[in-house]
Design brief:
This protein starts with 6 loop residues before the first strand and ends in a 7-residue tail after the last helix. The protein is built from 17 helices and 24 strands. With 500 residues, it is α/β, with parallel strands linked by helices. 45% of the residues are buried. The protein has 2 domains: 7-241, P-loop containing nucleotide triphosphate hydrolases (Rossmann fold, 3-Layer(aba) Sandwich); 259-493, Rossmann fold (3-Layer(aba) Sandwich). The mean pLDDT is 86.
Length: 500
């Protein structure tokens, strides 16, 4: 059945309140068999709440759900799954200590006479992994997989459920371009089979490319649906944020100083002979496919991982940090890709998360000056426009974009010389992205050297003064901004251009 066929899902007047906050208010939404229906909106717009209602995680307060012509009420996730709905959540729900087979078939392992049919499960898992283009041993423990590999396993798990409606919440947030193209191929295959897909993404360009229709939520309310023919980036963004966003680009007029950080022939477990420099006030982008060695190189510079050869100099002096703590004391800061696992203290307050790196400076004789801590928190909440109710709430209460701003606030409070940003806009909405871009440019303007790692080429090209491209652990090109376009960068990222 094509995208113009009958409805598989109707959401009529659905509302949900958490305490005094309306997460959803009288929302209407429908999906057809065999279509990709994009659901977009800023963080806090109500997308996750709607997904959780459809997935049986949260019960609606009012309104009606009709699935396959029958009114339904999902009170637990198994109700949704049994009806034929599979959800790929943005926050991956993998069990790291179990292997890929056990994660794909968790709670529904094929069995006969009370015994698990491991060979059947393994073969079926291999089939699902092949569909998403992931070549790994299905007996591999999930903890040993990269974030992008885990994302693909999560997609394979959803495919194994033979769902009629597949909900994808930022499914390619950790995928490189080649993996994303494979994902789009899978989506095309599912469409031909009549599977309906709700596709949630902050990447407007890809939404315009793959969606048959686009529905917009803002502040918990439904703002309308556009067909592929009606939609444009400006129109969708205007509906999402209620205002026009100024596009940010690297500034030609910014003053670039002397070399601040120099890396020479750095070699480690997943990178080899890496050399580049960053000057004061310069934004150097790191481009490459997943597995190119960008994050590993950054972690070695920051003292989080060991390296076996090469040299690092900071302001002309050779350095080799034994730990991130030592790097921080010397003026480096790093925002890692996995903000929740490696950076934020999710159950602790926003105030603590902002001030933790500065606490030694805010203390005397081992006693913390709480007044100065509060001043610091308020200063950076205002400076970065972090949206919150109170600084004493857990940082887990914040949206993804505001969590990212909280990490940035932590490092800005100590005024670093070099700031390493690994996927700084991962999982944040277009409004928060614009805020982060503007902040990064302001930081460079103040003289901070910035190493920007991103899988989004438009982001790299818009923000960087120079671009270092890596392929399979080696630097294949260092390009001035004037030399850069997506085609050229991808030639170097895939090893097709002549290396340095």
């Amino acid at each position: 059945m094509d995208a113009n066929g009958e409805l598989i899902l109707q959401v009529d007047g659905v509302s949900k309140r958490f305490g005094g906050v309306h997460a959803l208010e009288d929302v209407d939404f429908d999906v057809r068999y065999g279509e990709v229906h994009a659901l977009v909106g800023e963080n806090g717009a109500g997308k996750t709440t709607l997904i959780n209602i459809l997935g049986g995680i949260v019960e609606r307060d009012s309104g009606r759900l009709v699935f396959k012509g029958q009114e339904v009420n999902f009170v637990r996730p198994t109700d949704s799954i049994e009806a034929g709905i599979a959800v790929i959540h943005q926050e991956l729900s993998m069990m790291p200590a179990l292997n890929v087979i056990e994660n794909v078939y968790m709670g529904r392992m094929p069995a006969k006479y009370g015994r698990v049919m491991w060979k059947v499960a393994e073969q079926d898992t291999l089939t699902m992994l092949a569909q998403v283009g992931l070549e790994i041993d299905p007996r591999t423990e999930v903890s040993k997989l990269s974030i992008s590999q885990r994302q693909l396993v999560e997609i394979a798990k959803a495919l194994s459920m033979n769902a009629s409606l597949l909900i994808m919440d930022e499914p390619n947030s950790s995928l490189a371009e080649a993996e994303t193209e494979r994902l789009f191929d899978v989506i095309g295959m599912l469409k031909k089979q009549g599977v309906a897909i709700i596709y949630v993404s902050h990447k407007i360009e890809e939404v315009l490319r793959i969606a048959d229709r686009i529905s917009v939520l803002r502040d918990g309310t439904y703002r309308g649906t556009l067909s592929r023919e009606e939609a444009s980036a400006d129109k969708v963004i205007q509906m999402m944020v209620g205002r026009e966003l100024r596009r940010e680009h690297a500034s030609d007029g910014r003053t670039i100083g002397e070399v601040r950080l120099a890396v020479q022939n750095l070699t480690g477990e997943r990178f080899n002979d890496v050399s580049f420099t960053i000057r004061a006030g310069e934004i150097v982008g790191f481009a490459g496919l997943v597995g190119a060695g960008r994050s590993e190189t950054a972690r070695a510079i920051f003292g989080a991982d060991r390296f076996s050869g090469g040299k690092i100099t900071l302001d002309g002096k050779a350095v080799r940090f034994k730990s991130p703590d030592e790097a921080i004391r010397k003026g480096l800061a790093m925002v890692p890709e996995d903000r929740k696992g490696l950076s934020l203290f999710m159950n602790l307050s926003i105030l603590f998360n902002i001030s933790v790196a500065k606490l030694p400076e805010l203390s005397r004789a081992g006693i913390i000056n709480n007044r100065r801590v509060m001043q610091t928190g308020r200063e950076f909440v205002e400076k970065l426009s972090i949206k919150l109710n109170t600084l004493n709430k857990p940082v887990s209460d914040l949206s993804g974009g505001n969590q990212q701003k909280t990490i940035l606030a932590r490092w800005l409070a100590i005024n670093p010389k070099v700031l390493i940003l690994d996927e700084p806009t991962h999982g944040v909405d277009v409004g928060a992205k614009a805020d982060i871009y503007r902040l990064v440019r302001d930081l460079a303007e103040s003289g901070i050297s910035i190493l920007l790692i991103s899988s989004e080429l438009p982001e790299i090209l818009a923000m960087s003064d120079r671009v270092v491209v890596m392929h399979e652990g080696q630097v294949t090109g260092i390009l001035d901004r004037s030399e850069c376009d997506e085609h050229v960068v991808m030639l170097y990222a895939t090893g097709m251009a002549n290396p340095l």
